[in-house]
Amino acid sequence: MSQSIYDFTVKAQDGTDVSMSTYAGKVLLIVNTATGCGFTPQYVGLQELYDKYKDQGFEILDFPCNQFGNQAPGSDDEIHEFCVGRFSMTFPQFSKIDVNGADEDPLYTWLKDQKGGMGGKKIKWNFTKFLVDRDGDVVARFAPTKTPEQIDSSIAKLL
Asked: Which end of the chain offers a freer environment for a tag, N or C, measured as fewer CB atoms within 10 Å?
């Protein structure tokens, strides 16, 4: 049976279930993040993208992850408070997840199956980004080194 991104349920930052079907018809940028990473300043660019395109059907879905260098050690509430306080983040943030290994979130298993990326399917570090079109198809995977500013045009084309 072929799955769709809209078949998944994820945990919101407050622990409630969120069906990915909530985002049907929108362009999505799905990002695994960390608050203590060298790429953490990308939150500024992510928020700028969100502000620029949110009224055109664009959503950023932020999934904190502590699998890389223990760079997101806080609780879901601590991580959220940091992001809102430091970066004025307003896009949806979800509960901390694993993106690799035995406990990886099923959404990330599916995302990696759609776009393996360089060097295989494994997520290599924080701020790996998946771009999903309005039909729910994963159209691109961007390495952590690709800044939000560098992927702006890819998002604009889908809107």
From this structure: N
pLDDT tens digits, 130-152: 999 999 999 999 999 999 999 99
**Whole-structure pTM value:** 0.95
- Determine the Cα–Cα distance for residues 49 and 26; give it in Å rounded to an integer: 14
**What domains can be seen in the chain, in order of their start residue?**
5-158 (3.40.30.10)
The Cα-based distances of 36 to 4, 52, 69, 74 in angstroms read: 32, 26, 9, 10
CA separation for the pair 148, 73 (Å, rounded): 24
List the catalytic residues: 37
Mark out the alpha helices in 54-118 (DSSP H runs). 76-87, 106-114
Q: Residue 116, Cα to own-chain centre: how many angstroms?
A: 15
